[in-house]
Every structure is written in C-alpha cells, then in structure tokens.
Write a structure and sequence with these properties.
Blueprint: E1 12-14, H1 21-51, H2 58-75, H3 78-86, E2 91-92, H4 94-127, H5 132-135, H6 138-164, E3 173-174, H7 181-185, H8 193-228, H9 231-259, H10 268-293, H11 295-310
Parallel strand pairs: 1-3
Antiparallel strand pairs: 1-2
Helix pairs in contact: 1-2, 1-3, 1-10, 1-11, 2-4, 2-10, 4-6, 4-8, 4-9, 6-8, 8-9, 9-10, 10-11
Length: about 325
C-alpha cells in the first residue's frame, strides 16, 4: 500500500484510493480527461446559449445555469482529487476542507432543484404550447433559477455548519476523496444519530421531492402526448425531453445511493465509486448528452463556428 503522508496539525487526510495505487494512476488519467471535457463542454454550452439569439429561451436559460453549476461543482472537487491521485501527499487543510464541503454541497443541492425546474419548463412547453411564452416569462425564470441557487446555499449553510461543528477527538483521516457530509460525520466521536436523521430529512426534501416533481411533470407530458397519438409528437417529446430525462437518471441515480441510505450502511469502496460518478462523470456527460441529442444546440454551434470563420483572415 502506498504510504500516506501523515502530516500533523489541523490538516485532514483524504485516504481516497490510496489502498489501490495502480487504480490511482488509471483514475488520474481518466479524471483529468473527464475534467477537461467538462470544462470545454459546459463552457461551450454557456457561450453558445449567451451568444446565439435563437437560444434565448427559458429552456436554454436553465441549461446555462446547469452548465455553470456543473463547472463550479467539478472545479470544487477535481483539482484536489487530481493532486491527491498524483502524489503521496493526501492532505487537505481544514480551511480547504470546509470550503470544499460548503461549495460542493451548495452546488449539488442547487442542481437537484434546478433539474426539477427544468422538468417544469418541459411540462409547460409540451402541455401548454400556446401559452408557453406567457407562462414561462422572464421574471418567473429568474425567480425559479434564484430559488434553486438559494435552496443550495441554505442547505449547505445548515448541513455544512452542523457537520463541521461535530467533535472529532483528533480524528483526521477521511476515508473518501472529498470532504462530503456522510464521510465527515463518520469522523465524529459522539453519537451522530440526530445528524444522520437530519441528513436523511434534508435528502428527502432536496432529492426525493424534486425527483417526485420531475416524475409528475413527465407523467403529465406522457398523458398530453398520448392524447395526440402522433408519431411526430412522440419524436418531438423525445427530442426536447429525452436529454433532460437522461441527465436526471444519471444524477439522481447515483447521488440518492449516497445520501438516502443510512450512514451505517455507507460502504467504504462502494460509496467512493458512486460519488465519483456524480461528481466527475455526470458533469462530463451532461454537455455531451445535450449537444448530441439536441439539434438546436448543434445548429447554434455550427452558426457560431461559421460566423467566427467568416470574420477571420
């Protein structure tokens, strides 16, 4: 096993994958490539959505917010992960750990609510096509996006602060690659049953409630399309909603496995790999899913490239 640099002081040790040194080398390359694709893909979506006037619609406004969340979310985690995977030092300062905990939890919570908001937008587009622009007016879009961001900030201020205030009695080895609430709770040297219940209740509100709203929205969408009984209508729904459903499945399917299950059954290796999926893999796949399945984004990218080429030398 690779020797971990046991520094003293207030630093934490992110054990991560240090018990599998060969896997660390593979993960370093994979995570580095994934992070690069995340930066390029999400930045491209943000730029295209802002620069192309044809994408100045509620759907792409929320997609821009999602890409911004993914950019910041991965950046709060991946650089530290790459540093730990590359060298023998696995430490993170107490301040750095606190910042990572607050920022990643805020952005993860924001994405949970934002995906529900995007599902409501698709519901309005499919079920109220003639009144869509009236219903999804700019003020409502700003309010819904603001609600998503504020819910994330509120959750992290509560959950993060309570978790960091738990007495740890000198425990500083985090058996994870990230300063995350479930992993930090395990460091406590007191009874954490109340904290586990609080985490579970917060997860119900910010994970299962948005997921339920998403499922209800798509239930109404299916009913609306079923009444039309048109193959073309089904294709339109798949084109506009399929990408979002795929993103929802990837994100909620992984993050619920970590936050909904009781902390006592939070498996050591299983939890790390599941966390790797929603912190690294999902933000990489999101822009690929939206660009490969979305003709509007593809067209906007072509127009942007064509415009750039036409003004060149």
């Amino acid at each position: 096993m690779q020797i971990i640099n046991e520094t003293v002081g207030g630093d934490f040790i992110l054990v991560g994958f240090s018990d599998q040194p060969q896997l660390e080398k593979i993960l370093f390359v994979g995570v580095l490539i994934s992070y690069f694709l995340t930066l390029v893909g999400n930045t491209a979506i943000i730029l295209v959505s802002c620069l192309d006037s044809m994408l100045h619609t509620p759907m792409y406004y929320f997609l821009t917010n999602l890409s911004l969340v993914d950019l910041c979310f991965t950046t709060s985690i991946v650089p530290q992960l790459l540093w730990n995977l590359h060298g023998p030092a696995k430490t993170i300062t107490a301040v750095g750990c606190a910042i990572q905990l607050y920022v990643s939890l805020a952005l993860g919570s924001t994405e949970c609510v934002l995906l529900a908001v995007m599902a409501f937008d698709r519901y309005a587009a499919v079920c109220w096509p003639l009144h869509y622009t009236t219903v999804m007016h700019s003020r409502l879009c700003w309010s819904l996006a603001g609600m998503a961001w504020l819910s994330g900030v509120g959750n992290t201020l509560i959950q993060g602060t309570i978790t960091l205030q738990l007495p740890r009695c000198g425990n500083h080895r985090i058996y994870h690659f990230i300063c995350e609430v479930p992993a930090m709770i395990k460091l406590a040297c007191v009874d954490v049953h109340a904290n586990e219940v609080q985490l579970f209740l917060a997860s119900l509100v910010l994970l299962l409630l948005p997921l339920a709203l998403i499922l209800i929205s798509y239930g109404y969408i299916v009913q609306a399309v079923a009444r039309v009984r048109s193959v073309q209508a089904w294709r339109k729904v798949l084109g506009t909603c399929g990408s979002h459903l795929l993103v929802v499945s990837l994100f909620y399917g992984t993050i619920t496995a970590v936050y909904i299950q009781p902390n006592s059954s939070y498996a050591y290796s299983e939890g790390k790999f599941i966390t790797l999926l929603y912190t690294v893999v999902t933000p990489t796949l999101n822009p690929l899913i939206y660009t490969l399945r979305n003709k509007d984004v593809q067209g906007a990218l072509r127009r942007l490239v064509s415009k750039h080429g036409s003004i060149g030398p």
